[in-house]
Fold Dipeptide ABC transporter ATP-binding protein.
Amino acid sequence: STVLDVRDLQKHYGISKGTVFKRKVGTVRAVDGITFDIVEGETLGLVGESGCGKSTTLMEILELAAPSHGSVAVLGKDVGKLAGKDRKSIRRDLQVVFQDPMAALDPRLPIGDIIAEPMVTHGFSKEHIGKRVPELLGLVGLRPEHADRYPAEFSGGQRQRIGIARALALEPKLIVLDEPVSALDVSIQAGVINLLDELKAKLGLSYLFVAHDLSVVRHIADRVAVMYLGKIVEIGDVRTVFEAP
Ligand code: ADP
Ligand code: ADP
């Protein structure tokens, strides 16, 4: 079944010149009519050089920006048309792992609290959270007794694991990975990618894996979509895209 369905998504920005006498001089088609889907258990790599429109696409999928045109459906529900309870359920089903784990983790909180936060927000019981936090730490390869430590006490790779544990807290179906290893040393990138791959198989997740570098998604993506100037210029099986001349 389809987990994410993006149809003819567009985002246009007006460009203005001047400050006091401001006039519109043109339009940037940051996202120019892109269509793709992700099925259950699949990893789609969304790749392309800086400025091609990846962040804008993500912002629209995460509802942080309204599309100029088109639709985004998560688990068959059009996110633009949801209200109330349905909206909240979409926020459980779709989670994000960010590029910079440090920016995403509150330095004042022990990591147990950071991981627990989405469950607190969604009204889970203390008993549930108390069982779930050590379980989540174990899933990402950290020790339960680490729950009392602060983000600064961990390495970059460990921090990204904390971000992943937090994203898993509400048992999402789809995780958006926004350059999840780009800020990490090359030597530890493979460990995080392998963990993501293992978690996907174990938990039946689907991923939208965004990266500027095609090689990062080579071993984890099932399919790859290549963006250029706001459009998907190529989409297909990972081997086919890599073998393209
Ligand atoms: P990427 O994430 O692939 O680097 P972006 O989505 O950030 O690409 O940017 C796509 C295009 O849209 C770029 O040309 C960028 O300059 C432009 N853009 C992004 N945000 C804005 C904005 N708020 N106003 C005007 N142009 C923007
Ligand atoms: P609210 O407090 O209104 O429920 P949220 O804080 O749950 O809002 O999310 C606001 C928006 O930010 C949502 O569209 C959500 O998809 C997005 N978002 C940003 N970061 C995350 C994250 N780590 N996990 C899930 N959604 C996130």
Remarks:
- The first strand starts at residue 2 and ends at 17.
